[in-house]
Design a protein that fits this description.
Chain B: This is Protein ImuA. Chain A: It catalyses: DNA(n) + a 2'-deoxyribonucleoside 5'-triphosphate = DNA(n+1) + diphosphate. Chain A: Belongs to the DNA polymerase type-Y family. The complex is a heterodimer of chains A (488) and B (184). Helix content of chain A is 30%, strand content 29%. Chain A has 488 residues and is an alpha+beta fold. Chain A folds into four domains: 192 residues, Reverse transcriptase/Diguanylate cyclase domain (Alpha-Beta Plaits, 2-Layer Sandwich); 118 residues, Dna Ligase, domain 1; 33 residues, no CATH class; 82 residues. The longest helix of chain A has 21 residues. Chain B has one domain: P-loop containing nucleotide triphosphate hydrolases (Rossmann fold). The radius of gyration of chain B is 16 Å and the shape is globular. In chain B, helix 4 runs parallel beside helix 5. Chain B is α/β, with parallel strands linked by helices. Chain B has a nine-stranded mixed sheet with strand order 4-2-5-6-1-7-8-9-10, with helices on both faces. Classes of the chains: A alpha+beta (488), B alpha/beta (184). The interface between A and B is large, with 49 and 48 residues.
């Protein structure tokens, strides 16, 4: 069967993606940092009218066009957006592939008649893209190369069967060649594809390598070229419909166990582990309740996951009964198979399970651990991270004595550079017995921290005669005394 | 009869104990260092101050400590019970700000017994609970030479007598040194 290929080219995809979230009615450009300077990555039609172009330096562009609005480029988001468009294009045919970073390629053979012919289908594509605010250029040809060339070099449509003739009038750049090759061909006077066809094949290959003729043959259909459609995203969901409604939590747990076994074998096959699981229980009155389980570690061991569901299932209101259970792994992470060993890590597994159980009650991000950080500022010398998403790190070294307990600085009355002889703190009076210091700590000027706006700090460890050992500091640039911590 | 310090410390496992301010934290870290293994530290999220891992690294390894922030004391007690019962962590420390009912104290006690782990409640002075196995009071003592000197005393003991000791912390060996037995 003959192939009919549609090539969609989105010349302004990145800037239009941003424009969809925040409508912009002014010259607008996306900026990317390339080789030590900010350059224009993509720009909208108004900016192009002002004479700006891609790859231009951002400061030059601003000089040309002072009203230029800009935004940092995000190629990752653009790729994601293109995949969304590929998914949308699935409404025309099942055979949709990505074409570079800003194009799609569709094989519409056999599906065009569903839309009333090829012309009607392309019209529908244009209409929908215009409604979505995305500029699109469309080429239709017998081969992928022809469709690409027609899309990029502004021919609306190649008549069916006329592809080789249509193609010959296109410039050689429409053959998807490297910039260097195109320039070399143009220097030799080869402007159009027809000129290239007229040349003896042997000489072209000797001069430019195999690439040029390979692309030419692909464009005219002498050589085949594949369109690889996107692989459908893996789905980790299983469900069970029951002939009679159930209501006991033991029954629901038994059902969940069966679903978990299916799901875990699926996860095991793909070497994945579930991070977030959602159990949806549909009742006979069509209402549904959800039990979400967030795990402290990716898991695919049904026997370990099942007890963690107990608390959530216990809280479900079964009403007149539950007749459908659906279990889905929403968050999935890679979990490679591991060599079993005799040492085992039983205790670590149990600790992770405990974190999960605590997390289902109070939220997984509230179980935290300390990680060392490289800073001499006392309150920045460690990071607090959720335990489920971090691993313990060390070593912990105390270069100088540090208090066990840190709190936001509390002002006390005092003057002078040495700690006050007597002071009141938290409605208690203290007399200084022994003072060790000062240890001067300067703020990190490269980070703006409001708490350190008072400048340098001279820290003193003060042993009071009442017993308590406090960590005081004095700010010489803005005189004042504060208590920030307490020692053992 | 003289009571030896090391008959009472480290605290009896499978029980919950209480410790009063002001130096409750150093007691808890010293205990965590003695017991080894994982330590769970439960506190409420509205408290402004927090424990400093650099500070307590001379008592115990901060890698072993997990901190849990709860929205209120009820959640904190539920987490403590769960952790004690699981037996995975050797020590569960919970900072309490309101007095505990006898039922709640007893539940913690039973959970600790089931999981064979130790519970430690940090309580404000005078808010002790009858279910606790021992209650300690821990206060720093001023000393010109030594800045780790503390006075630890047992103010309640279900299976022994009351006593008091002056102790200091040896950071090199991570051990407690009993200076001398203080008179009652």
């Amino acid at each position: 069967m003959r192939r009919r290929v549609v090539s969609l080219w989105f010349p302004r995809l990145p800037s239009e993606r941003v424009g969809r979230t925040q409508p912009i009615d002014a010259p607008f450009a996306l900026i990317q940092h390339q080789g030590n300077s900010d350059r224009i990555y993509c720009l909208n039609a108004q900016a192009e009218q002002m004479g700006l172009q891609r790859g231009m330096g951002f400061s030059d562009a601003r000089a040309f066009c002072p009203s230029l609005r800009s935004c940092p480029a995000d190629p990752e988001a653009d790729r994601y957006f293109l995949r969304i468009l590929a998914r949308w294009a699935g409404r025309y045919c099942p055979w949709v592939g990505l074409d570079g970073a800003d194009g799609l390629v569709l094989n519409i053979a056999g599906s065009a008649h569903l839309f009333g012919g090829e012309a009607a289908m392309l019209g529908d594509m244009r209409l929908r893209m215009a409604r979505a605010g995305i500029t699109v250029r469309i080429g239709l040809g017998d081969t992928r190369g022809a469709a690409w060339g027609l899309a990029h070099f502004d021919r609306t449509m190649a008549e069916e069967g006329a592809t080789p003739e249509q193609i010959t009038s296109l410039p050689v750049a429409a053959l998807r060649l490297e910039e260097k090759t195109v320039v070399a061909l143009q220097r030799l006077g080869v402007q159009q594809i027809a000129d290239l066809i007229a040349l003896p094949r042997a000489t072209v290959t000797r001069r430019f390598g195999k690439e040029v003729l390979h692309r030419l043959d692909q464009a005219v259909g002498e050589l085949p070229e594949d369109i690889s459609p996107l692989r459908p995203p893996a789905h980790y969901g299983v469900r069970m419909t029951l002939p009679e409604p159930i209501g006991l939590s033991a029954d629901v747990m038994a059902g969940t166990e069966r679903l978990l076994e299916q799901l875990c074998s699926k996860l095991k096959k793909d070497e994945k582990g579930a991070r977030v699981l959602q159990l949806t229980l549909r009742r006979v009155d069509q209402a549904s309740q959800q039990v979400e389980l967030r795990l402290a570690r990716p898991l695919r061991d049904a026997a370990r996951i099942l007890p963690l569901f107990e608390r959530g299932v216990g809280q479900v209101d079964a009403g007149y009964g539950i007749d459908q259970l659906r279990l889905e792994a929403i968050g999935v992470e890679p979990l490679p198979v591991q060599q079993m060993n005799h040492v085992g890590n039983q205790n670590k597994d149990r600790l992770d399970d405990l974190i999960t159980r605590i997390g289902t009650r109070i939220g997984l991000e509230n179980v935290q651990r300390f990680l060392p950080a490289d800073s001499h500022i006392p309150e920045h010398s460690f990071i607090i991270a959720p335990a489920a998403y971090s691993t313990p790190e060390g070593p912990w070294l105390a270069q100088r004595p540090r208090p066990l307990h840190l709190f936001p600085p509390e002002a006390i009355a005092g003057i002078g550079k040495r700690p006050p002889e007597r002071f009141r703190w938290r409605r208690m009076s203290f007399a200084t017995g022994k003072a060790t210091g000062p240890e001067r700590i300067a703020p990190e000027w490269w980070l703006a921290d409001e708490n350190w706006s008072s400048g340098l700090r001279d820290y003193w460890k003060v042993d009071t005669k009442q017993g308590r050992r406090l960590w005081l500091f004095y700010t010489p640039q803005k005189p004042g005394w504060f208590v920030q911590g307490e020692f053992a | 009869m003289t009571t030896s310090f090391f008959q009472n410390f480290p605290l009896r496992t499978g029980r919950t104990h209480e410790i009063c301010l002001p130096n409750a934290q150093s007691f808890a870290f010293a205990l965590g260092g003695y017991l080894g293994g994982a330590v769970l530290w439960i506190c409420e999220d509205w408290i402004a101050g927090h424990i400093n891992p650099i500070g307590f690294s001379s008592y115990m390894d901060p890698q072993n400590l997990l901190r849990v922030k709860t929205k209120d004391q009820t959640d904190g007690l539920a987490v403590a019970e769960e952790a004690l019962r699981s037996g995975v962590v050797n020590l569960v420390v919970i900072e309490l700000h309101q007095p505990l009912s006898f039922t709640a104290g007893r539940r913690l006690q039973l959970a600790a017994q089931a999981g064979e782990s130790t519970g430690l409640c940090i309580i404000p002075e005078g808010q002790g609970n009858n279910a606790a196995e021992t209650r300690w009071r821990c206060a720093p003592v001023f000393d010109q030479q030594d800045s780790t000197l503390q006075r630890w005393e047992i103010t309640k003991n279900k299976s022994g007598t009351l006593a008091a000791w002056d102790v200091r912390w040896d950071a090199q060996t991570c051990r407690i040194i009993v200076v001398s037995k203080a008179t009652q």
